[in-house]
Amino acid sequence: MSYRNPVPTVDAIMQKDSKILMIKRKKEPFAGCLALPGGFVNEGETAEDAAKREVMEETSLEIDPIEILGVYSDPARDPRRQTLSVVFVAIVIGGNERAGDDAAGLEWVELADVEKMKNRIAFDHARILADYRNWKTSAGTFWSTKRRTQND
Amino acid sequence: MSYRNPVPTVDAIMQKDSKILMIKRKKEPFAGCLALPGGFVNEGETAEDAAKREVMEETSLEIDPIEILGVYSDPARDPRRQTLSVVFVAIVIGGNERAGDDAAGLEWVELADVEKMKNRIAFDHARILADYRNWKTSAGTFWSTKRRTQND
Lengths: 152, 152
What we know:
- The structure is a homodimer.
- By secondary structure, chain A is of the alpha+beta class.
- Chain A has one domain (7-143): Nucleoside Triphosphate Pyrophosphohydrolase (Alpha-Beta Complex), CATH 3.90.79.10.
- Chain A is 18% helix and 38% strand.
- Chain A is built from two helices and eight strands; from the N terminus they run E-E-E-E-H-E-E-E-H-E.
- In chain A, strands 1, 2, 3, 4, 5, 6, 7 and 8 form an eight-stranded mixed β-sheet that branches.
- Chain A starts with 6 loop residues before the first strand and ends in a 9-residue tail after the last strand.
- Chain A binds chain B through residues 3-8, 40-49, 65, 67-68, 70-71, 73-75, 82, 84, 86, 139-141, 143-146, and chain B through 3-8, 40-49, 65, 67-68, 70-71, 73-75, 82, 84, 86, 139-146.
């Protein structure tokens, strides 16, 4: 018997003052939209190493993951194929930022503006950043269908 | 170009008093060893739904995930093929425990005894349960290569 499984991915949240580092996507889906830096976990690397590699490829920055915000695996989160994304919170420890690989450009986005920009934000990354704002005060972790409020 | 990726899995930690629910594995690898209930995430389900389904199949218990302990993705953690496991902490909300599917039996294991039983424990589940003991006091999350101490 053969089963199909979601593909594991990683995304990284880097904050500077009140802003979050996002990439402008070069390719479909969501070409031209903003997304967190990230990508697929390759065989032979850990999720945390994949996060470091993807951020380096897309932004030329060296990072250190300091926490896991949560795991997002809603089957509809990527229109191509189901992904399961481990979202790390990371700090920049080196490098000079420069867009590369799948990134057409880089943008530091005001975290407080994400909600009103959400039509320009790829995948479920607006939701992830809303969770990140909560996490900064609660230190909880999140998953796609976790109850956000008593009434969810 | 085609890349190979790790396969996403889930494991679940259920505690009753000072004990953790583990299954005795029916199949290789680690046949006869103890493991946390869990398994592969299928396409079309979230990680949290996979945890509920796997625990139901292996123990006949209905669970509700309440937290993510961490994400474990060391390429060597499974001898068959690289897995990336999301480990949920869960509470039992229904069912009558009975071993099923890949479980030859069920065993409630004293959390404090895990360290000395580690030769009988499959995969990196002794490490996961050591992290769980820390988590209960720190509420942090963990990944395969996270620094455990200043000297790691």
